[in-house]
Design a protein that fits this description.
- This protein is 23% helix and 27% strand.
- It has 373 residues and is α+β, with helices and mostly antiparallel strands.
- It has 2 domains: 1-16 and 170-373, Naphthalene 1,2-dioxygenase Alpha Subunit, Chain A, domain 1; 35-163, Rieske Iron-sulfur Protein (3-layer Sandwich).
- The chain has a 7-stranded antiparallel β-sheet. Strands 11-17-16-15-14-13-12 form a 7-stranded antiparallel β-sheet. It has a 3-stranded antiparallel β-sheet with strand order 6-7-8, with no helix packed on it.
- The two termini are 27 Å apart.
- Bound molecules: FE2/S2 (inorganic) cluster (FES) and fe (ii) ion.
- Fe (ii) ion is lined by residues 198, 204, 208-209, 331.
- Fe (ii) ion binds at residues 198, 204, 208-209, 331.
Length: 373
Amino acid sequence: MASRAPLPPTAFTLPAKYYTDPLLYEREVDMFFRQMWVCVGRMGELEDRGSFFARHIAGDSILIVRTSARGEPDSVRAFHNLCRHRGTQLCRDELGQFKGSIQCEYHAWTYDLEGRLVGAPHMDGSAGFRREDFPLLSVRADVWEGFVYVCLADAGPTLQEQLADLPEKFKPWRMGELRRGDGITYDIATNWKLIIQNFSECLHCPNLHPALNKLSHYMSGENEPLRPTYMGGRMDLNDGVTTMSMDGTCPRQFLPGLSPQDQRRVYYYALFPNLLISAHPDYVMAHTLWPLGPDRTRLVCEWHFHPSEMARPGFTADDVREFWDMTNQQDWRVCEMAQAGISSRAYRPGRYSDREDLLHAFDRFIVEAHGGE
Ligand code: FES
Ligand SMILES: [Fe+2]
């Protein structure tokens, strides 16, 4: 993606501690993964009332439960995965279906899907005990275009406030209608910020991704300036290319609602703290990032397609999966090598080019979040 403005001579990369220091890492987990809305998955994973998945967010296990019936408007609740009796974890499954209520295995305290305690054996007559004082510990949950979000902080901005003008920007893709066609999970030995930085520049494309560069030239497109909660831009498809896939041809219909202009572009947006959206003419790729330590990140990469295309005989996501798995692995390799080099005692900050403006802006955003200069 192209640059907008020249950078000052002070545009250096960050000191190593931002990628290696455990205390600084913990502070980032708190600032970005406990205080902000975090993308935890897709509504498509929750098919019916009582469907749930569990996520580990910033050290807490959170259950995300669908409370609306199949076909009804999206409605989810999220709870800390622990019983209000003696604190026992309620569920060890990553994915499943509650049958109308959530019951603790230990002494059978039972909660409805709204988290209310509806059964507490042997508690009747216990002095001052009232069921309404012991609901599940609720976590804020919301849905945007099929992306399920939770926020561990009880107060603070709403999801709509965090997303700012993105819902309007991404409206034409109608992402809420899309369904997961395929996905891959990667464990990457790198700091979560290096993945966001790598995602936000394509100067590395000709060298690292020759196949990608044949489909979409690295100097095409344009960045937006960094916003308080996201950054991104677009790249253009080369002449004769109809989507990003192994051979650059698109065997699927374009997503309904896209302008002829957007059918020729790919939009790459990093939504802080953990969702990377790549909106293509015929599919949307979403990466969610899960920091596991200063130098470890789990990344879930998924491709979402229009259901009418998925229903066609012969539908396959293989062309997209193969192309992006190759490209992802090229990226993760250099992210791991960047982490390794930055972790060396010999490392000192290097100089950004004018075409790495978003990275420099992101670094300043991170430093300011830490209260630094
Ligand atoms: S700890 Fe859950 S019912 Fe006792
Ligand atoms: Fe890349």
